[in-house]
Amino acid sequence: MNPTIRKRLLIACTAPAIIIAITVAIHRIVASNADGRTFSSTADIPHNKVGLLLATSPNTADGTRNLHFDSRINAAAELFNAGKIDWIIASGGDYRSTEENGADEPQAIRDSLTARGIPADRILTDYEGTRTLNSIVKAKKVYGLDSVTIISQKFHNERSIYLADRIGLHAIAFDAAPVPVLANRFRNELREYLARVKMFLDILTRKEADVKAGSQPIPPAPAAGNDAATHQTSDE
Question: What is the three-class DSSP state of 170?
């Protein structure tokens, strides 16, 4: 066989294996980095002043209800009502004019949380959260946070914690329940493998967050504390 052809065949056979190995390695690095810092029980998770709720659209691309959205809303409400966070940042984007079935994600989060009894004045809407990187960087550099509780599905939380570590933001995370549809879970897990590779490429190329400079410090929690009685009073 011609040496040039043999060399090309060797590259064609080994390159996919190398790419897969690197992708799996990155996935495991990110998961290992978050070990012990993601929680599924409000009884176990420490208190943080702010919960950073990473948005997803309330609707899927075909217009059906997005179960990931509902799960994240439930998780944020559960955390707040358990007194484990005092404020919620609803971080996402407004895609109503750019995507079919697109939504105003921060407003959808606010509406859904207030419908569950969370006081509107404890919810901050962030419209620069069109990428996870933006949401994390803004929490640190604009909202002035040194620590935060991230709220999303576990696979997303692990990647978010890795990003937070890169900028010196101490992050833990509360895992929203996985969706019950196995096909959706598989698709999102596969997408997450690719998202983690992209994150590493962004880090290597020093990609910057698209966040406007400024300062928007979050005030202390009310003196009365964050308990069920306070929530009921706030809603009256």
Answer: strand
Q: Are 65 and 101 in contact (CB under 8 A)?
A: no
Half-sphere exposure of 12 (CA within 13 A, CB side): 6
Q: Are 153 and 54 spatial neighbours (Cβ–Cβ below 8 Å)?
A: no
- Residues 104, 6: Cα–Cα separation, whole Å: 54
pLDDT tens-digit map of 192-211: 999 999 999 999 999 999 88
Token look-up 């897990």 returns: 189
Residue 101's pLDDT band (cuts 50, 70, 90)? confident
- Cβ atoms within 10 A of the Cβ of 236, count? 4
Contact 114, 234 (CB under 8 A): no
Percentage, residues of the chain above pLDDT 70: 89
Output the pTM of the full model. Answer: 0.85
